[in-house]
Amino acid sequence: MATLSDPPSESFQLSKLIRDTRYRSYTFQLIALIALILVFAYLGSNLASNLAEAGLNISFSFLGNSAGYDINQSLIEYNNQMTHLRATLVGALNTLLVAFLGCILATIIGVIVGVLRLSKNWLIGRIMSIYVEIFRNVPVLIWILIIYFVMTAAMPSARDYLGEEPERDLLLGLIAFTNRGVYVPAAVFQPMGWVVLGVFVASIFGAIAYRRYATKLLYDTGRLLPMGWPMLAIVILPALVAFFVLGQPIALDRPDPLANRFNLQGGIPISGAFIALWFALSIYTAAFIAENVRAGILAVSRGQTEAAASLGLRPNRIMNLVVLPQALRVIIPPVISQYLNLTKNSSLAIAVGYMDLTATLGGITLNQTGRAIECILLLMLFYLAISLAISAVMNAYNSAIRLKER
Amino acid sequence: MSDTHAESVAFVRDTMIPEQAPPASEAGAVKWVRSNLFPDWLNAILTIVALYLIARLVIGAFPWFANGIWNASSLSECREILDGATGGCFAVLAERWNQLLFGFQYPSTEYWRPALAFVLLAVAAAPLLFWMYLPSRLLVLTALYPFVAYWLLWGGTILTPAVAALGFVVAYLVFARIERRSFALALGAAVVAAVATWFLGGLLVDALPRVLALPEVASRNMGGFMLNFILGVVCVSLSLPIGILLALGRQSKMPIIKWICVVFIEFIRGVPLITLLFVANVVLAYFFPPETNIDLILRVIIMITAFASAYIAEVIRGGLAALPKGQYEAADSLGLDYPQAMRLIIMPQALKISIPGIVNVAVGLFKDTTLVSIISMFDLVGMIRGPILASTEWNGVYWELWGFAILMFFPVCYAISKYSQWLERQLATDHR
Amino acid sequence: MKKSVFLGALTVAGLAAGASAAATLDDVKARGTLNCGVAPGLVGFAAPNAEGEWEGFDVSVCRAVAAAVLGDPTAVEFVPTTGKTRFTALASGEIDMLARNTTWTFSRDVDLKFEFAGVNYYDGQGFMIPRELGISSAKELDGATVCIQTGTTTELNLADYFRANNISYEPVPIETNAEAQPLYLEGACDVYTTDASGLAATRASFENPGDHVILPEIISKEPLGPLVRHGDNDWGDIVRWTLNALIAAEEYGVTSANVDDLAEGTDNPEVNRLLGTEGNLGEMMGLDADWAVRAIKANGNYGEIFEQNIGESTPIGLSRGLNAQWTEGGLLYSPPFR
């Protein structure tokens, strides 16, 4: 040990900055930092001089000005006298709406297709493969445009439903499918209607409680209570009773073919652009989700299925109790990143004129105010925030389901 | 068994029964149909419904194809010829074929050039795609291809791409000479050598602008499916090296470099491509000095490349993370420095794992090139939406045109993803 | 590193050429071509024909300026711009002038820092509706679904008009004219609204133009004209006076057919000054004496351009209306060449 003395203290030399591994990383980082600062300074000074030359400035005050344009679909109250900020908010909500509904529909279709692709039925399996391959391998923009234009061309005109003797009748007297969109009845709540809704929500909790109780009973005593029909009854019956006892306080506002010479009035009009976008995004993303589902199910080793079968479980029980819980662990992370893709792809709304954030803030507001830099900056920040939020959910989920190994 | 029943057995067979053919319902086509189409009542219903739908589809679509009109000058003429019968108006494809493929501004006398470039692409890509079967010397073709393709597509003197290629060759030679002494030094010297070659070569090009010159085509005149292809190929090839650097940067132990890469990757992955294209279209010009005026296609290439490289970086990072730690430690214990370890040990393995993921990114990127139609570039989708559907003659021909678009994209993307799956099987060395 | 290499290689190839410093005129001359922003496809105003050559009313203005400055009406790079990109393209120097049915408004002139060189078409926003609906006035449009082009003043005018008349409507925003057509024809919207000239151009491209009517209400003033960047007054002067030269040429009877003869010298001093045989107007702008001769020869005078592209003999069939010379009751009034 005594022979191992400290290395002779050598004087610092410049060449050590590059040769000595202790300092080299600092050198590189310093160079990178300086380069980064230089690049930003260069871009920033160009921006400043270009803006100065054009006599422009960066300012977000335009968001407070009156927007002046109308938006055909809005979840919150909006008219053209409100501010650009309000219009931006309307657009953001529309983005979230189509993304949310798109994720739900895509999941439903994706799971069904993914499971059917593994079906023993040769024909169904083939059809599902064809579906997956066709939709995965053609750009989503083309699907959006196809659905939009074909809907416009193939669906009946809204005028066919109008007048005293229309060419077409509403489906069940409730729903109209036109090339402008679908008109569905809206529920109108009188004060007592909210009570009915409350009863309905309460009975859903009741059904869940019943299920808990039945499961507990099964585990404790081995007695099997019927599950399906009683739960359905618990959910529906009290609400129905309340509905009639309180004197039918929920009315339907149906689309009215007589009120206007151009359009059906009343009910909820769902615009064609929304439907095209929603549907196209859903079936496109569903093709990817189906692949994830299939891969997840295949990832559960055959031994698990066989072991479950040897315990005497029926095929649907095997699926529900053995395969799916294990497969979900594999399926969910890629599916969440598909949700992320769907949300980002919803910005293609601009191709069909659905008024999402890209069409309001990045479209009309940008055009009317000419504030390109500000608008696009805000637009990117919004999408970035959504993406980071979804990533955070994914990371939380990933760490929650990580196999707890010894 | 024999104890309990021995006395009750009246007859014991002592010869084997000859093998019987299985019953008709358990063999051949019948058995196949039974077990694959009608195994139980639920599947039977599904099968019947599916068969019905297919039949409907075929019956509906057949006359549309069979009666298709291939020779007409407008939709109204198509309708006249059809005279009320169902039929597609494929004449639009015949008439606008060149526009769909090359855009409406590419000089029609020069169509052979992109066509040739496309054929050469197959030749150049083969050594790369099937490297395990073809001699690696053929990779020279791949390396030469970008320069040849540039010359064919954009025209001008052949000296321009030749000088560009020469710069790379000189840089490589310089790099190879000095590399033993210091990686960083060699890299710097290579860059200097390349820039010097380009500078000198630039003088040469200016002096001899007409050597083997093809008529020049401005990049704003590119259009149609060709534009999708150019954007896809160029951006994927450019984003690969950038993606590798970003991935390495993100894995790096140097915090500043790591955070630069993380912020870049997460930012790019967090925003939709369309907003990046908006940036290319309306914002990027503000960030360059007024004298430089980079044209739109170049700005778009920059943004799409940035987009793709962030995704590729993530794929490669996955590959790096999947390598066992022992590989890194083994490289260290051999005394290799960082560039050597990466180049000789880590990257070859990490890239091999990442190839399927990279190919998926490439397919996604190729599909995303259609987004340029939103910023008024006339790619395949832009041509259909803009000049063709708006023209008086073809206003209203949807199925034929969009069907054509699907037919152009599907085979390319499908082939690439099938290749990726095939490659995955080829590369699987774990003998499952 | 690879990227900069690529950029470098492309720069060598001259792909990234051009400049937009303060003196646009010098840049254009040095470059040898005029970069002119136009609409991406509006028949009659700016659209590529079957051979891929741009033609139309706005295109002719670009060609006249190119002829005046560069002596060659074909030395124009046409840059298709959308409603969104047109102003950025001009502000960033990607294009030297914008001739794209752009309405001269206060905020564009003052806030967005552009300079309108004049008005080449006096327009107003109108409505087109299928004849079968039997509508005769825009006031009857309560509840209608209206297709509008986004990024234009039409959107704002429409909102104002319906609010002022206290009637409701359902807007369907469309990016380009090309996409609005199928929607309108299939009945996905009842009404299509844009500048009256655009409506006429659109209707002309329909299979049965007679089935559609343009309503009498014109709800806005839309003076359309070419514009340049604020701050380069010399360049602005050239575009302005090239446009004026086309208008004045019609007033004085100078046409593409007789301009060479008249350029020999005439009795009319105004014509002589315009065509450069008297005075040195061209020199004052930094051009040569016969700049206007070339501009007029490129596509003819204003009247000829109008007739070739959008006049009554074309499928678009617009009458001169407000766009007649002031001597014939219109609004076209070129300041004197003196």
TrEMBL record, chain A:
InterPro entries: AA_ABC_transptr_permease_3TM (IPR010065), ArtM/GltK/GlnP/TcyL/YhdX-like (IPR043429), MetI-like (IPR000515), MetI-like_sf (IPR035906). One of its GO terms (biological process) is amino acid transport. It is found in: Cell inner membrane; Cell membrane. The keyword Nucleotide-binding does not apply. Keywords: Amino-acid transport, Cell membrane, Membrane, Transmembrane, Transmembrane helix, Transport. The chain crosses the membrane at residues 26-43, 96-119, 140-158, 192-210, 231-250, 270-290, 346-364, 376-397. It comes from the Bacteria. It is a multi-pass membrane protein. One of its GO terms (molecular function) is transmembrane transporter activity. Residues 92-394 form the ABC transmembrane type-1 domain. GO terms for cellular component: ATP-binding cassette (ABC) transporter complex. Belongs to the binding-protein-dependent transport system permease family. HisMQ subfamily. This is L-glutamine ABC transporter membrane protein /L-glutamate ABC transporter membrane protein /L-aspartate ABC transporter membrane protein /L-asparagine ABC transporter membrane protein.
TrEMBL record, chain B:
It comes from the Bacteria. Pfam families: BPD_transp_1 (PF00528). The chain crosses the membrane at residues 41-66, 115-134, 149-175, 182-205, 225-248, 260-284, 296-316, 353-378, 398-417. GO terms for cellular component: ATP-binding cassette (ABC) transporter complex. The keyword Transmembrane helix applies. The keyword Transmembrane helix applies. One of its GO terms (molecular function) is transmembrane transporter activity. It is a multi-pass membrane protein. Residues 225-420 form the ABC transmembrane type-1 domain. InterPro entries: AA_ABC_transptr_permease_3TM, ArtM/GltK/GlnP/TcyL/YhdX-like, MetI-like, MetI-like_sf. This is L-glutamine ABC transporter membrane protein /L-glutamate ABC transporter membrane protein /L-aspartate ABC transporter membrane protein /L-asparagine ABC transporter membrane protein. The lineage of its organism: Bacteria, Pseudomonadati, Pseudomonadota, Alphaproteobacteria, Rhodobacterales.
From TrEMBL, chain C:
Residues 33-262 form the Solute-binding protein family 3/N-terminal domain. One of its GO terms (biological process) is amino acid transport. Gene3D superfamilies: Periplasmic binding protein-like II. Residues 1-21 form the signal peptide. Keywords: Signal, Transport. InterPro entries: Bact_solute-bind_prot3, Solute-binding_3/MltF_N. Belongs to the bacterial solute-binding protein 3 family. This is L-glutamine-binding protein /L-glutamate-binding protein /L-aspartate-binding protein /L-asparagine-binding protein. It comes from Citreimonas salinaria.
